[in-house]
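queue> pop job 88
queue> type: inverse folding (structure -> sequence)
queue> payload:
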């Protein structure tokens, strides 16, 4: 019996690499799951936490689709960034909670990737105060941005707009996805799930939420910098 179960398990595991099964799963199984277990998109950004350590070095992965995805449209986005470069750098300095920030063009999207401390809403409010004119110009080039311009007159709307485009951060512990999906569905906390259904929960979330950040990322404050080590050893640069 144990050998039979082992053979069955190996057969089931092997289906993942079976092209015919994958085709049937995409066209039949996943739509059936979506009908049988309705799944809502989980909001983006870091989730609220009462732990002080969870409110340090938080990630924002803002993904905005360009209206014009041609080379000319992408060049317009680059032009806006270069025109506002000084404003962006001084603004980020003045916000004073930003560890890291950069803009990327990826496919048809312009993305702002940053790491910051504290509350998300206050973080966006600080940006409106310091580089609001830049955001006014850049979101004029992206889909859905016209309704939140100028940002200084649509503060709360802009916060919600950014939050809606901030990538969902998958939990560091995979089983936490059960509780997140349940909360999005309105299911009371405490429901017990079979571990074998975890792949289904992930697939269903990816069906409604195709872009995601894989976990909360690595966060640390090194006790000693490489510069300090080299100085102590007399190596220099």
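queue> result:
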């Amino acid at each position: 019996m144990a050998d039979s179960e082992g053979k069955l398990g190996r057969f089931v595991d092997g289906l993942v690499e079976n092209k015919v099964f994958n085709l049937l799963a995409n066209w039949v199984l996943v739509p059936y799951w979506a009908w049988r277990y309705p799944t809502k998109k989980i909001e983006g950004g870091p989730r609220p936490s009462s732990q002080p350590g969870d409110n340090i070095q938080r990630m924002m992965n803002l993904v905005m689709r360009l209206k014009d995805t041609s080379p000319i449209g992408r060049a317009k986005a680059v032009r806006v960034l270069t025109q506002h470069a000084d404003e962006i750098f001084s603004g980020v300095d003045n916000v004073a909670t930003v560890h890291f920030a950069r803009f990327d063009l990826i496919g048809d999207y312009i993305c702002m990737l940053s790491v910051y401390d504290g509350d998300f809403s206050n973080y966006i409010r600080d940006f409106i105060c310091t580089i609001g004119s830049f955001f006014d110009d850049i979101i004029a080039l992206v889909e859905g941005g016209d309704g939140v311009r100028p940002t200084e007159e649509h503060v709360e709307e802009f916060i919600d707009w950014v939050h809606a485009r901030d990538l969902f951060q998958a939990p560091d512990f995979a089983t936490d996805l059960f509780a997140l999906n349940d909360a999005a569905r309105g299911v009371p906390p405490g429901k017990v799930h079979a571990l074998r259904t975890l792949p289904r929960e992930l697939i269903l979330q990816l069906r409604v939420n195709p872009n995601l950040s894989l976990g909360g990322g690595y966060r640390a404050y090194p006790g000693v910098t490489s510069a300090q080590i080299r100085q102590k050893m007399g190596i220099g640069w």
